[in-house]
Amino acid sequence: MSDSIDAAQAARALLEVAEAGGTGAAATVIGPPESTRLGRRMVHTVEGDSGRTLGSLGGATLDSVVVALLRDLMTDPRARDGVRRIGAKEDASGEVELYVEVRRPVRELILVGAGHIAQPMAHLGALLGYRVTVLDDRPDFATRERFPDADRLIRADFSDPFAEIELHERSHLLLVTRGHKYDYECLIRALRADPAPAYVGMIGSRRRVRATYVQLIDEGFEREVLERIHAPVGLDIGAETPEEIAVAVAAELVLLDRGGSGFSLRSVERVAERFFDSTGSGEPRDRETPP
Description:
This protein has helices at about 5-20, 60-75, 120-125, 180-190, 205-220, 225, 240-260, 265-270, 270-275; strands spanning about 25-30, 40-45, 50-55, 80-85, 95-105, 110, 130-135, 150-155, 170-175, 200, 230. The protein is built from nine helices and eleven strands. The model has no long low-confidence stretch (mean pLDDT about 90). It is of the alpha/beta class. The protein folds into three domains: about 5-105, no CATH class; about 110-255, NAD(P)-binding Rossmann-like Domain (Rossmann fold); about 260-290, no CATH class. About 35% of the residues lie in helices and about 20% in strands. The protein has a six-stranded parallel β-sheet, with helices on both faces.
């Protein structure tokens, strides 16, 4: 482990590992005010099976404890940036207050088609932290005016839609072209990609999806490959407008990422049912004691 690194070095290390598909976390000493370690930083990154630590907080024992903390945060999908404290028992010089940052692999949302659904989907994808790419063969559709939140706008040939894009295990594809023919051509290429994308969603009715499955089976695709397709796409929320459909798709992406049930929180938590007396009298239970 080397001496403390500065903020620019820490930010660069976190960015580089996230771009490469790895995970990184940084710790900066922010207290107590009288600490001689104020401002010292260290970064721990993991890419594949290898880990690397840059910088030092000023002591081998403290560094070891903080690396273990950063590793725990990196493996916890719910971990967030914030303040953490290392107690006196872990560091001979007393309690240390840290600000920690976690950076996960950059995820990509690739919208194949720049129509009405793609517009709100690009905005929601950016809000969810995806790097958004929009592909279309019509230059008047994939424009910065229509997609201000997109990172990339690519005029693509749907016969070879991913010529300028490297698909990988962090790619999330949504096929929303203007016609079944184009969706199908893009779908075949996505299913043959190695490594396989994390998500392949395709817009379409039940009838259209069924016809797609028949075509894929005739092409020689196995059932387990077909089961990777999210079609019809999104969660069942009764969506009809392009904006509502985009919300349904975004909700499915969050569900897959976070591992929720997909049910309404009301039906999962059943707060009202537990609050009122089970006899049906309408009287609330003891307010101080949860059921």
